[in-house]
Amino acid sequence: MAYLLPSEFATKMVDAGEAKIFMSTRDTLIRAYMAGAILALAAVFAVTITVTTGSPLLGAVLFPVGFCMLYLMGFDLLTGVFVLVPLAWLDRRPGVTIKGILRNWGLVFLGNFAGALTVALMMAFVFTYGFSVEPGVVGQKIAGIGESRTLGYAEYGAAGWFTIFIRGMLCNWMVSMGVVGAMISTNVSGKVLAMWMPIMLFFFMTFEHSVVNMFLFPSAMLMGGGFSVMDYFLWNEIPTALGNLVGGLAFTGLTLYSTHVRTAPKRNLGGDSAKPALAS
How many CB atoms lie within 10 A of CB 56? Predict the structure, then answer.
């Protein structure tokens, strides 16, 4: 596959962040909506595979199909803009402001949530035949995930909150590697392979992804999960989103930017003799 050097794709990361800040409200919302909906379908797909085959590994191996589809289509996840958009501000791109960054994050959050909620409503309807019967084994599994990953953390108080925060950090460390993976190749097969590996890792390790959770928890509530909206936001979505922001930006965005865009001066071990000779 055609491979771009880190110095090349790191610059593309900054360019992408700048472009997202200046994107129109309409386009930002549409792209975020579609990203949330597609990732939600991928989550249903992976849970269904896990339940029907009894193999969480197989579900994790196949979950990245949704991530690859949405990024090949140019749609945006909150986890991705958490990493890319601040780089344009750090690079002092003209017109890029903190207000612009927060606007982008807010619009992408709303779009992702609307897309994921749409799929949650549709799948809850499917699993319950229009809310006329109890959900099947897949629906029950999703409801159980919602309870265990809200009330399950709440049982441990502050330790539980920081546990989910750290799991959110680890998640977007891997997911942001997938976002960057879409930039390191110039052909589809190379992009897919580079995206697939870190996404598979995060899903199998059950790290916390804010957009996946935008589907899992509303869907669980619709199918009988025993927790509230406040439980969902306080004991999942808020710490997960904050962890996603810190993990993706610190471990991926800033490390690549600082070492491949704003590189430190090279060491001079040879004094004057190490300086390049002037052309005669």
Answer: 16
pLDDT at 84 > cutoff 50: yes
Q: State the chain's mean pLDDT as an integer.
A: 93
**Of 13, 89, 2, the residue nearest 256 (C-alpha):** 13
Confidence at residue 41, expressed as pLDDT on a 0 to 100 scale: 97
Q: What pLDDT was estimated at residue 267? A: 76
What are the backbone dihedrals phi and psi of residue 275, each rounded to the nearest 5 degrees, phi first? Answer: -75, 140
100 CB burial (10 A radius; 0-12, 13-18, 19+): middle
Q: Which tokens belong to 162?
A: 């920081």
pLDDT band of 1, cuts 50, 70, 90: low
Is 27 in a helix, a strand, or coil?
Answer: helix
